[in-house]
Amino acid sequence: DGTLGWSGTRGDRFRVAVDNTVADPFSIHWHGIILPNGQDGVPYVTQPPIKPGERRLYDFPLVQAGTYWMHSHFGLQEQSMLTAPLIIREPRAAPETNEVVVMLNDFTTRDPSGILAGLRRGSMGTKMAVKPDLTDVRYDALLANRRPLSDPDVTRATPGETVRLRIINMTSGSNVFLSTGRLAAEAIAVDGEDIVPLPGTRFELGVAQRIDIRVRIPSGQGAYPIIAQAEGTDLLAGVVLVTAEAAVPALSARAPKPVGALTNGQESRLRSLRPLVGKPVDHRLSVTLGGDMAAYVWSLNGQVWPRITPLEVKQGERVELGFVNQTMMTHPMHLHGHVFQVTEVTGARLRGAKRDTVLVPPRQAVKVEFDALYPGYWMVHCHLLYHQAAGMMTVLHYQGFTNARYDPLASAAEFPRP
Ligand code: C2O
Ligand code: CU
Fold first, then answer.
1. Is 208 in the pocket of ligand 1 (CB under 6 A)?
2. d(C-alpha 217, C-alpha 324), whole Å
3. What spacing in Å lies between the alpha carbon of 403 and ligand 1's midpoint?
4. Alpha-carbon distance 328 to 22, whole Å?
C-alpha cells in the first residue's frame, strides 16, 4: 500500500518475490509467522542465502492475524535497518478507526562488524556511558519510523477517536519503555496475539517483541507524543498524534536522565485472550543462558553457535521450554515458526500471553509451552543481534525431519570469527 513493509489478510497467501539488490548475500526471515520450514529464511539452516542479483519466491498461506515483522537473518545486516513491518488483518474485522505502525530502530554510524570486533576485544569504550549489563552497545540514536524525535513522524488524529498503535521493536539491542503520556491506553495484543486488555500509560517492549496499544484521543485539540526510551540510556524516539488545529511541540531526542532496567513485571500481568488448551506437558526442555562477558561469547546450554546439538521434539507433543538465565543481562529469547504461551515467570505459574519472543531477566527463569505441530529445523536464539553473532543460538529439531541444506557449520562465513 505504498508504505514500507507488507500488509495482508489472514487466509490470503503470502506471495512475495524478494530481489537481492545489494552486493552481499542476504536472507529474510518472517518474524513470528507460522510457515513451512523451508521458507523461514535462515541461511544454512532452512534456506541457502539469496545471492546478489538473485530473486527468491515465497508463497504460503497466512494463518495468523496481527503485528509481525521481517528482517534480514544474515550476519549483522539487521543493524543496517533491513527490517520492515508485516501486518496481517482479520478478514472481516470492524474497520479500526485509525491505525499507526511504529517501527523502532537503534541507529549507529559505526560499522556493525566493527562494533562486534570491539565487543570481542572487550572494548570498554563502547560501554562507558551506559550501565554495564543493561546494554552492551552504545547507540547514537533511537528512531521511530526511521526518524529522530526531533523531527518525528506525525499522524493526524480526530478528537474522540481511538487509535491502534502497532509498535514493533526492530532494534538490534534496545529494550524500551513506552509511554502514551496524557493518553489513556490499553495494551490489546503482544507479538501479534490478543491479550486481555491491560490498561496503563507505560509499557515495556523487549527487542523483537510487538505490542498493540489502543489509545483514546480526548475531545478538543491536542498533540500527543507516544515515546519510547531505550533501557539504560537517555535515548528517546516516538511518533506524534495531532489533531487538526494543534501544533506539534518541539521534542528532544534525549531524556533528562537515563532510565533503568525493564522489570518484566508486565509479563506476569499479561493473559492470553485465547490460551492454549489445557493439556499435560509431554516433553520438558531446558535452555540455560550463559556467557562470558569478558570474551564476549554467549551460549545456550553451554554450546556456542554453530557448534550445537539441536533440541529434539516429536510432532504432536506439548513441549515446555524452560529458559534459565545465569547471566547478568536480560535476553529476549525467540523461537521461530511457533507461538508459545508464557506459563511461568520467576516461579509463579500463569496462563500468560502467547508470544514468539520472551524476555528472560538476569538470574531468572521463564517457562513457555507450545504444541509441536510444525516439522522442521527451527531457530531458538537470543534476539540481541550481537549475542546471536557471538553464539547465542541453537535449533529445535523435529525427530525424523530432514533437510539436506541443514549445515550450521557453513555459517562460519556469515559470522566471521577472530
Ligand atoms: Cu526475528 Cu531468528 O529472528
Ligand atoms: Cu542475549
1. yes
2. 42
3. 20
4. 37
Predicted local confidence at residue 146, as pLDDT: 97
Backbone angles phi, psi at 77, to 5 degrees: -60, -30
Judge whether residue 124 has pLDDT over 70.
Answer: no
- pTM (global) more than 0.90: yes
Ligand 1 atom, smallest distance to 32 CA: 1
Closest CA relative to residue 134, chosen from 276, 10, 263: 263
CB 385 within 8 A of CB 79: yes
User: Residue 71: CB within 6 Å of ligand 1?
Assistant: yes
The three-state secondary structure class of 373 is: coil
| pLDDT(350) > 60 | yes
Mean pLDDT in residue range 178-188: 97
The answer, yes or no, to whether any atom of ligand 1 lies below 6 A from the CB of 381, is yes
H/E run at residue 114: helix 112-120
**Cα(104)–Cα(207) distance, rounded to whole angstroms?**
10
Check if the beta carbon of residue 19 is closer than 8 Å to that of residue 99: no
- The answer to whether residue 2 scores a pLDDT higher than 60 is no
Q: Whose CA is nearest to atom 1 of ligand 1?
A: 31
Ligand 1 centroid–CA 283 distance in Å is: 24
CA of 288 to the centre of ligand 2 (A): 12
**Beta-strand runs (E) in 26-135:** 28-31, 55-61, 66-72, 83-89, 98-107
Closest CA to 14 of 33, 37, 42: 33
Ligand 1 mean position, distance from CA 59 (Å): 19
Q: Is 73 in the pocket of ligand 1 (CB under 6 A)?
A: yes
Alpha-carbon gap, residue 70 to 263, rounded angstroms: 27
Percent of the chain clearing pLDDT 90 (strictly above): 89
Average confidence (pLDDT) over 268-285: 97
Give the closest ligand to the alpha carbon of residue 384: 2
Q: Which three cell numbers stand for residue 108?
A: 549507529
pLDDT digits (tens, 9 = 90+) for 359-390: 999 999 999 999 999 999 999 999 999 999 99
Tell how far the Cα of 333 is from the centroid of ligand 1, in angstroms. Answer: 9
Query: How many residues does the structure list for the chain?
Result: 418
Q: Please report the pLDDT score of residue 187 as a whole number.
A: 98
| Residue tagged 543481562 (cell numbers) | 329
